Amino acid sequence: MDLLKGKIALVTGASRGIGNAIAELFAQNGASVYANARKIGSLDSLLAKCENSSGRIMPLYFDVTDAAAAKQAVMRIKKESGRLDCLVNNAGIMPDALIGMIDQKVAREVFEVNVFAVMELIQLAARVMVRQKSGSIINLASIVGVNGNKGQLVYSASKGAVIAMTKTAAKELAPAGIRVNAIAPGMIDTDLFRSVGAEKVSGLLRNIGLGRLGKPSEIANAALFLASDMASYVTGQILGADGAALV
Ligand SMILES: NC(=O)c1ccc[n+]([C@@H]2O[C@H](COP(=O)([O-])OP(=O)(O)OC[C@H]3O[C@@H](n4cnc5c(N)ncnc54)[C@H](OP(=O)(O)O)[C@@H]3O)[C@@H](O)[C@H]2O)c1
């Protein structure tokens, strides 16, 4: 299991949930992983888990909405490692609200994290990847970005934007040898999903063909494929990983 041997990766939002699982699996597969989180110390358990991996974890603490900090982070990666092979835009937030109850300030925050930070990091990473003529960018979208969902006007719009950005960036960056794909998870057992409330979870489970929530590790497996050379001819794709979920 060394599919990413020697590769340099940046994974945002790696303190918990899907990002944490992706960073861990990438390190297990030989990558040097710059793991991003906001709170200093929140990557300590990831560091401990990956101590004996063939790759390694290097914490990079910054808020993805801080464009100057994101630029510094990518410059540090370039300086220390000389290249960036994979960017995973995973950090995301999902405050739900029904139409009529949407707070403009919260809506703007969702777009800052889920859309503008992704746009900025794509640009920063692409500048490094264009020079090396290779790279893989993976964005975390969602099935609701494809199908929509009640109570998620803002979140679904932000993930729809991620899907559109993925397709456009794939077309624009393909001549430079850079692949850009998205993963569209269904309902994955993380803090973000649990924030819908325990009473709603059992109802939602009935809508999943496989009859269970997905695990963060199952999304990490999809990310591993897209990051690796196994996906060398795969770009511009929105890879559903939803256990046959109906939204
Ligand atoms: N879980 C699902 O069912 C599901 C389904 C479809 C798509 N997704 C997408 O998958 C991604 C990961 O979701 P998840 O379920 O793993 O969520 P999660 O458990 O809530 O974790 C979110 C991660 O993003 C980080 N984050 C949030 N805002 C940030 C910021 N401004 N700067 C840096 N990091 C920030 C969080 O850091 P802190 O610890 O500092 O808060 C945390 O590490 C998201 O993009 C989400 O929209 C999830």
Structure in words:
It is a single chain. With 247 residues, the chain is of the alpha/beta class. The chain has a single domain, classed as NAD(P)-binding Rossmann-like Domain (Rossmann fold, 3-Layer(aba) Sandwich), CATH 3.40.50. Helix content is 45%, strand content 15%. It contains 9 helices and 7 strands, in the order βαβαβαβαβααβαααβ. It has a 7-stranded parallel sheet with strand order 3-2-1-4-5-6-7, with helices on both faces. Helix 1 crosses helix 9 (216-227) and helix 4 packs parallel to helix 6 (153-173). It is globular. It starts with 7 loop residues before the first strand and ends in a 6-residue tail after the last strand.
Short descriptors:
binds NADP nicotinamide-adenine-dinucleotide phosphate, globular, 9 helices, 7 strands, alpha/beta, Rossmann fold, 7-stranded parallel β-sheet, 247 residues
Q: Helix share of residues?
A: 40-55%
Encode the helix/strand succession as letters: EHEHEHEHEHHEHHHE
What fold name stands as the CATH topology?
Rossmann fold
Distance between the termini: 35 Å
Q: In order across it, which strands form the biggest sheet?
A: 3-2-1-4-5-6-7
Q: Residue-averaged pLDDT, rounded? A: 97
Which stretches are low in confidence, meaning pLDDT under 50 for 5 or more residues running? none
Largest sheet at a glance? 7 strands, parallel
Ligands and ions found? NADP nicotinamide-adenine-dinucleotide phosphate
User: Total number of helical segments?
Assistant: 9
> How many β-strand stretches?
7
**Annotated CATH homologous superfamily:** NAD(P)-binding Rossmann-like Domain
Radius of gyration: 17 Å
- Structural class per helix/strand content? alpha/beta
Counting structural domains, the number is: 1
Report the portion of residues in β strands: 15-25%
CATH architecture, by name, is 3-Layer(aba) Sandwich
The CATH class: Alpha Beta
Outline type: globular
